[in-house]
Amino acid sequence: MSLILAIDQGTTSTRAIAFEIGANAASGETGDLRPVAVSQIELAQYFPRSGWVEHDAAEIWTATLQTCREVVRKAGGVARFAAIGITNQRETAVIWDAGTGQPLHRAIVWQDRRTADVTARLTAEGHEPKVQAATGLILDPYFSATKFAWLLDAVPSGRERAARGEIKLGSIDAWLIWNLTGGRVHATDATNASRTALMDLKTVRVARRPVRPVRRAAHGPARHRSLCWRYRRDRCGPVRPSSAHRRIGGATSRRPLVGHAR
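Below the sequence we write its predicted structure tokens.
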């Protein structure tokens, strides 16, 4: 039977699980997936200041690769896998170099409160009702938008480099997809994007006017090509498989391996 490789990238650990696809699941019914192999690695937490929480994005990718390879080995090889699914900590923000693929700063974790003053100022200026009407979210440092702005200002010439397409921003799923595809795909899905405070719930696109003050939270350009904003509307559609096969443990199968199932 075919297997699904599930990546569970959480706040305290990174885990990979191989699920066997039963006959009912293969025909579209639910509840017929059986775990056959598991690997898990704990994730280091960094607290540089009170209220600040960070992760090492490179460590997350290394742990993802290691756990996936271990599960693939236990399950009998990469050729047995039909797809990869990703579930992840949502609002955590990652910034990386588009050319080298290296993180430019530690990831800002969803619990982090460093942009509380920014969201408080935006709320005091009266922006929250429009932002909430468009995105469904209040102005709060919990969500990714002001984290992205902070990261761009923390990296030397970050905003200028982002405007030239030299910097990428995204949530954890975008970071993993970028690495799994060898930098070919910079994408997220609506469920992650809806937690950024940038997505219009009606159009499932970047909300323009209502969130403009949020995008400009640090007094910079209103828009960056670097923000990951391409949705996979399919359940588990194929992305070019070769790079993911090489990374996870084999290059012999030509089956579509990488998909973004939510």
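Confidence is low (pLDDT under 50) at residues 218-226, 231-241, 251-262.
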